[in-house]
Amino acid sequence: MFRKLSLVYKNSLIINCINHLHISEFSGNNVVRYKVRLKCVKSTNDVHKSNNLRKRNVPLVKNLNENVLERTTTVMKRWEEEKKDEGVKWKFLEHKGPVFAPPYEPLPKSVKFKYNGKVVELSPEAEEVAGFYGKMLDHDYTTKDVFNKNFFKDWRKVMNEEERELITDLQKCDFNQMNAYYKEVSEKNKNRSKEEKKELKEKNEALIKEYGFCIIDGHKEKIGNFRLEPPGLFRGRGEHPKMGKLKKRLNAEDIIINCSQDSNIPKPPSGHKWKEVRHSNTVTWLASWTENVQNQVKYIMLNPSSKLKGEKDWQKYENARRLHKCINKIRDDYQKDWKSKEMKIRQRAVAMYFIDKLALRAGNEKDEDQADTVGCCSLRVEHIELHEKKDDKEYVVVFDFLGKDSIRYYNEVPVEKRVFKNLTLFMENKKGGDDLFDRLNTMILNKHLSDLMPNLTAKVFRTYNASWTLQQQLDKLTNEDDSEAEKILSYNRANRAVAILCNHQRSVPKGHEKSMEKLKEKIDSKRDAIKDAERQVKDAVREAKHGSVKEKFVADKKKKLLQRLKEQLAKLEIQETDRDENKTIALGTSKLNYLDPRISVAWCKKYDVPIEKIYNKTQRDKFRWAIDMAGPEYRF
DNA sequence: GCAGAGACTTGAGGGAAGCGGC
DNA sequence: GCCGCTTCCCTCAAGTCTCTGC
C-alpha cells in the first residue's frame, strides 16, 4: 500500500517525502488521507485540525518533523518486538525459482587436448572440467601448487577409467588449444554486431522480467541473484587450501525452494524435482543450496533496493545511532577495565579499545581448511610489535596481519600507556603463534557488549565509527562558498577518511600511471590555453577602449572564454587530486555498507549538491528510504 | 558453555556498459 | 562512428552473528 518508508504518529501513518507528508489517519475501519506540504505546517495540531492545509500559509515544519522523528525510536522498538515475537519476515512470497547455468557445450573437434605430446579425446565430463582449467591458464592461480593439486585431484574424479589410467601427471597436460579457443570466443563476443548485441540484450531483459522479480506481501520486488552459480574451479582468496577444487554443476535436485504455500510454486526443469519445497516465512531467502567445496549453504535473496532489505539497513544505522548515546559510558567502562584484576576482563577491555579506535573486525575463529586470516579476537602475538618509542611517538603498537579477503592490515598506532603495558603482559611467555587474547573470543565479547546495550555487537562499532567519521569530516571539510566540484572533492575526502579507517584497499587500477600522465598533459595544455586567452583578452580590452560596440562585444566574449577555461582547469586539477588520492583506496564498500545514507542525503540537500553526484542509480535505489526521509537538518 | 549450522552482511575483482574525445 | 578509459553492476567468497542441540 505504501512504498515510502513510514512512521507512526498517534493513530496516523506518516510518510515523509521530500516536499510532503502523506498522512493516513486510522479510525476504526476508516482511513482519512492527508497530503500536507511541509512548508505549511506549524505544529502537529495543524495536521489533525484540517485536511486543507495547503491553503494555509504558515511557514516552518520543524516542530512536526522533530516530533515525528523523536517517536521513531519508539516505533522501531515496537516493530522489532513485533517481528521478534513472531519471527515473521513475510506473509506472502511468490517467485519463479532460480535460473540454471546454461548446459555445457562440447568443444569443437578441432580443439585438441594433448597428454605427453599426444592428442587425447576426452569424455564430455572430463573435457568440461579441463576447460575450466584451460580458461584460467593465464591466471596466477595456475602457477600455485595448491590450486594445481586440488584441480588435478578433482579432475581425476570425473574422468572415466581409461582417462584416469592414462592421465596421471598434470605437468604433461597441454591445455593450450583450449585456452586459445576460449580467447577466440571471448574476442568474438566482444566484436558482436549491433544486431547481435541488441538480440542478446532483449533476451536478457526478458529473462530478468520473468525470473528477476518476486511478489512479497503485495509488492513486486527485485531479486538480487536469481541466477545459480555456474560450475567452475573454486577461487579462494589468499592462500586458501581449497583453491582449484571443482565447484559442481547444480541441478534442481540440489535446490531448496522457499515460497508461500498458497503461491504458484516454481516449476523445476522437466524431468527434475526440487530437493525440497519449503514455506518458511521466518527467513528471507527464496532458494538455497549447499555448495560442495566448503559445504556451505548459499542463498537466493532480494535485491538491496527491496523494502525488506531497506528496513534492515535502516535498523542497522538506528542501532549505530543508539551506540552514540552511550559510547562515552562504554569508553569510560573499558578504560576502567584496563586495570581489572581479572585477566579475562583486561583482555576484553583492550580488544574493545582496538575495535572502537581502529574499527577492527570481531575476528571469529577459523577452521584449518580456510585461509589464515585474523580479526581482533583472533590476533596472534606475531601480528603485533610493541615499541616504547617509534619515530618520536611513545607506546606504539605496530599491527601487521592479514584480515578479511587476505588484505594486509598494517598500522602503526600510538596507544595509551596502560594499553601498552597490558599488551606486554598478554604477550609474556608466549610464542608468535599463540593467541594474543587467550581468554577471549567473539562470543564472550559480544555477550558482554549486548549487556551494555541491546543489539550491540563488535560490528556495530564499525558502522558507528564510520558514520560518525563521515559526519565529522563533512562538517570540517565542507565550505559553503565552494564550487560544486570542490564540495564533491570534500565529500570524497570524507568518504576516503572512512575507507582508510576501515582498511578498504584496492589494487592500483590498470593503467593508472598512464591515465594520470594523460590528465597532467591535459592540465598543461589547458594552462597554455589560459595564457593564450589572457593575452587575447588584454589585446581585446585595449582595442575595445577606443573601439566600437563590436570590439566591446569581442572583448566580452574573450573574457567569458577565459573564465570558462579557468573553470575547466580547476575541475581538471580537482580530478587529478581526487584520482591520485584514490589510487589504492576503495570508496564503494564504506559508502554501501557503513555510512548512514541520511548523512550524505542531508549534506546534498544542505549544500545544494545533486544526489546523483554522490550516489549512482543502484545506490539511489538502495537508499531510497534515506533520500525520502532525511532533510538538510539530519545529524547522525 | 561449546560446536556446528544457518542466515545474513560485507568485500574485492572483473566483465559489461556507457561515455567523452577525436 | 570508433576507441579507450571510467564507472557500474554482478559475482561469489569471506566475514559476522544468532540459533539450536547436546
Automatic annotation (TrEMBL):
<dbReference type="GO" id="GO:0005730">
    <property type="term" value="C:nucleolus"/>
</dbReference>
<keyword id="KW-0413">Isomerase</keyword>
<dbReference type="InterPro" id="IPR011010">
    <property type="entry name" value="DNA_brk_join_enz"/>
</dbReference>
<dbReference type="InterPro" id="IPR014711">
    <property type="entry name" value="TopoI_cat_a-hlx-sub_euk"/>
</dbReference>
<dbReference type="InterPro" id="IPR014727">
    <property type="entry name" value="TopoI_cat_a/b-sub_euk"/>
</dbReference>
<dbReference type="Pfam" id="PF01028">
    <property type="entry name" value="Topoisom_I"/>
</dbReference>
<dbReference type="InterPro" id="IPR025834">
    <property type="entry name" value="TopoI_C_dom"/>
</dbReference>
<keyword id="KW-0175">Coiled coil</keyword>
<comment type="function">
    <text>Releases the supercoiling and torsional tension of DNA introduced during the DNA replication and transcription by transiently cleaving and rejoining one strand of the DNA duplex. Introduces a single-strand break via transesterification at the specific target site 5'-[CT]CCTTp site in duplex DNA. The scissile phosphodiester is attacked by the catalytic tyrosine of the enzyme, resulting in the formation of a DNA-(3'-phosphotyrosyl)-enzyme intermediate and the expulsion of a 5'-OH DNA strand. The free DNA strand then undergoes passage around the unbroken strand thus removing DNA supercoils.</text>
</comment>
<dbReference type="InterPro" id="IPR048045">
    <property type="entry name" value="Topoisomer_I_DNA-bd"/>
</dbReference>
<keyword id="KW-0238">DNA-binding</keyword>
<dbReference type="InterPro" id="IPR001631">
    <property type="entry name" value="TopoI"/>
</dbReference>
<keyword id="KW-0799">Topoisomerase</keyword>
<dbReference type="InterPro" id="IPR036202">
    <property type="entry name" value="TopoI_DNA-bd_euk_N_sf"/>
</dbReference>
<dbReference type="GO" id="GO:0007059">
    <property type="term" value="P:chromosome segregation"/>
</dbReference>
<dbReference type="InterPro" id="IPR008336">
    <property type="entry name" value="TopoI_DNA-bd_euk"/>
</dbReference>
<dbReference type="GO" id="GO:0003917">
    <property type="term" value="F:DNA topoisomerase type I (single strand cut, ATP-independent) activity"/>
</dbReference>
<feature type="coiled-coil region">
    <location>
        <begin position="516"/>
        <end position="582"/>
    </location>
</feature>
<dbReference type="Pfam" id="PF02919">
    <property type="entry name" value="Topoisom_I_N"/>
</dbReference>
<comment type="similarity">
    <text>Belongs to the type IB topoisomerase family.</text>
</comment>
<dbReference type="InterPro" id="IPR013500">
    <property type="entry name" value="TopoI_cat_euk"/>
</dbReference>
<dbReference type="GO" id="GO:0006260">
    <property type="term" value="P:DNA replication"/>
</dbReference>
<protein>
    <recommendedName>
        <fullName>DNA topoisomerase I</fullName>
        <ecNumber>5.6.2.1</ecNumber>
    </recommendedName>
</protein>
<dbReference type="GO" id="GO:0006265">
    <property type="term" value="P:DNA topological change"/>
</dbReference>
<dbReference type="Pfam" id="PF14370">
    <property type="entry name" value="Topo_C_assoc"/>
</dbReference>
<feature type="coiled-coil region">
    <location>
        <begin position="183"/>
        <end position="210"/>
    </location>
</feature>
<dbReference type="InterPro" id="IPR018521">
    <property type="entry name" value="TopoIB_AS"/>
</dbReference>
<dbReference type="InterPro" id="IPR051062">
    <property type="entry name" value="Topoisomerase_IB"/>
</dbReference>
<dbReference type="GO" id="GO:0003677">
    <property type="term" value="F:DNA binding"/>
</dbReference>
<dbReference type="InterPro" id="IPR013034">
    <property type="entry name" value="DNA_topo_DNA_db_N_dom1"/>
</dbReference>
<dbReference type="GO" id="GO:0005694">
    <property type="term" value="C:chromosome"/>
</dbReference>
<feature type="domain" description="DNA topoisomerase I eukaryotic-type">
    <location>
        <begin position="233"/>
        <end position="608"/>
    </location>
</feature>
<dbReference type="InterPro" id="IPR013499">
    <property type="entry name" value="TopoI_euk"/>
</dbReference>
<dbReference type="InterPro" id="IPR013030">
    <property type="entry name" value="DNA_topo_DNA_db_N_dom2"/>
</dbReference>
